[in-house]
Prior knowledge:
There is one protein chain. By secondary structure, this protein is of the alpha/beta class. The chain has 2 domains: 6-162, 3-Layer(aba) Sandwich (Rossmann fold), CATH 3.40.50.2300; 182-371 and 413-473, tm_1862 like domain (pyruvate-formate lyase- activating enzyme, Alpha-Beta Horseshoe), CATH 3.80.30. Helix content is 37%, strand content 17%. The chain has a 7-stranded mixed beta sheet, with helices on both faces. The protein has a 7-stranded parallel beta sheet with strand order 8-11-12-13-14-15-19, with helices on both faces.
Amino acid sequence: xxxxxxxxxxxxxxxxxxxxxxxxxxxxxxxxxxxxxxxxxxxxxxxxxxxxxxxxxxxxxxxxxxxxxxxxxxxxxxxxxxxxxxxxxxxxxxxxxxxxxxxxxxxxxxxxxxxxxxxxxxxxxxxxxxxxxxxxxxxxxxxxxxxxxxxxxxxxxxxxxxxxxxxxxxxxxxxxxxxxxxxxxxxxxxxxxxxxxxxxxxxxxxxxxxxxxxxxxxxxxxxxxxxxxxxxxxxxxxxxxxxxxxxxxxxxxxxxxxxxxxxxxxxxxxxxxxxxxxxxxxxxxxxxxxxxxxxxxxxxxxxxxxxxxxxxxxxxxxxxxxxxxxxxxxxxxxxxxxxxxxxxxxxxxxxxxxxxxxxxxxxxxxxxxxxxxxxxxxxxxxxxxxxxxxxxxxxxxxxxxxxxxxxxxxxxxxxxxxxxxxxxxxxxxxxxxxxxxxxxxxxxxxxxxxxxxxxxxxxxxxxxxxxxxxxxxxxxx
Length: 477
């Protein structure tokens, strides 16, 4: 008897293209269980809907759509991607009666909200590999699927319900990486990607990572990570970005991953980048990262002001930032520090303190994002809601009317920064070429990675690496 396939759709069309890692992992898990999988990748499709309709003509058991980003998290542009997802769901419905299932990191921040908005049938929030396989198995057999972990569905009363996601302590995903065209993503996107863990236990007041991926850290076996790196190398991908929220949490696992890569001799064959927190980041880890192939780390430090770091609940002090930069310098690792300017309590003095402090550290690059995106189920959003209606809050920018669920982008910029906070930040940076300043106008968006033609041109010319590292190597115009 012919086994019906699953159609997986990558709807993300941001440029430069970013490989849909979640779909590669998900497709690998389905294939390992004997489920036929067909991928439709809108990132490269000449006619996305024609290719989608062709795939759907085979009567799939379900259609999975990965929704990576709800918006570009950028105050200057305010780009919002949910309408595009809604249009795609409607087009898929016209072509098949198979249930449409949504998943992905962006979706998992707003599971009920996105499902209600886009009109899909079902969704999976959190880790998707095992729950989606369970869902497909039940759908194919005609069995009740409403108990599947992380399932988002509409109950008999029409209300959207969200099952608790799977929350195991271990993360076991196939390392094969053979569903998507990783070689093409490398050619056109400048890097590959790998995940070594999921989840973040930190208490930052604004961050959506614990909302989307959970607070319990689930680590992959270090040998499995090394297997995956080798598989990507065989596809010609030798520059990678680790997609962990914070690579060094927990530090023992990060060290074990590095040791596994070193033992295989991979540190001499790949270059990789990571996101990490500045504490804990011991010197031993910095040197192990470099031996394992790490060439650059992006630290989301948020601020150089002790007062603001405490307000953001970052769990470290400016001295930790200085020490970690020194560790990376000694190890030969390039450093990117990201500021997040405008959180509650921010004023001109704290902005000046942060910028002056980071200038003194002499990092390779500094990002100076202005405006804090509000996400539901975070301490910051909860505090904002308690203070009254969004529309009457003078600190908020963006979609503040009829948007209590925050699905459309809303940003916090403390009113103490005045009517032109971007100008204040740009003036304090004072032309320092180590900084990616916030744009004074929407058109000046070279540090926004969405539809970035400067990056695309550089990658086409042969540049490879994390986007910030590619940009820092380009002549400043």
